[in-house]
Amino acid sequence: MLLGIDARMTPDLLSCLARMGHGDEIALVDSNYPAASTAAHCVIREPIQLTGLDAAEAARLITSVMPLDPFVPHCALRMEVDGQPDEVTDVHRAVFDIIEERMPEGAGTASIERQDYYAHARTCFAVVQCSEARAFGCFILRKGVVF
Fold first, then answer.
1. N- or C-end of the chain: fewer Cβ atoms within 10 A?
2. 112 forms bridges with which residues in the sheet?
3. Residue 118: which residues within 8 A CB-CB, separation 6 or more?
């Protein structure tokens, strides 16, 4: 146990977040996402599991210790619903509510088409898979700097 660190933070996730540098990205994915095959392309080659947490809880946990990037137009991306890119689902709202609380001034959020998300996730530092059961509950979070 560590002081000031949420007890749900796993050693693997804490190590991953500490190793990431400014501009590195993490793919936060739902329970249906092909996490293992995607992670095989990442720096951390195995998915980090956050069993029992939904996407919003996982986003809150991650952003409790990881700053978001203020130097890019979009510090967080959500996976779009197929054929409905402007639809913002309940899971999107729940996660972006947390992101917007912790987002640095000048940063923003955006969406990415599902197939483009898959390709982008393979370039991330790591894949974090939570127990989110709602469809399209996948996000990319870009690490910022500590001032």
1. N
2. 79
3. 38
Specify the CATH number for the domain of residue 73.
3.40.1650.10
CA distances from 100 to 63, 68, 75, 104 (A): 11, 10, 10, 8
Number of domains the chain is built from? 1
Catalytic residues: 22, 69, 118
What the block records as the tokens of 15 is: 């190590």
Q: What are phi and psi of 139, to 5 degrees?
A: -145, 160
| Residue 16 belongs to some domain of the structure | no
Tokens of 93: 């709202």
Q: Domain for residue 126, yes or no?
A: yes
Length of the chain, please? 147
Sheet holding 139-142, edge to edge: 48-50, 126-130, 25-29, 139-142, 76-79, 109-112
**In a 3-state reduction of DSSP, which class is residue 11?**
helix
pLDDT digits (tens, 9 = 90+) for 40-95: 999 999 999 999 999 999 999 999 999 999 999 999 999 999 999 999 999 999 99
Domain limits for position 135? 23-142
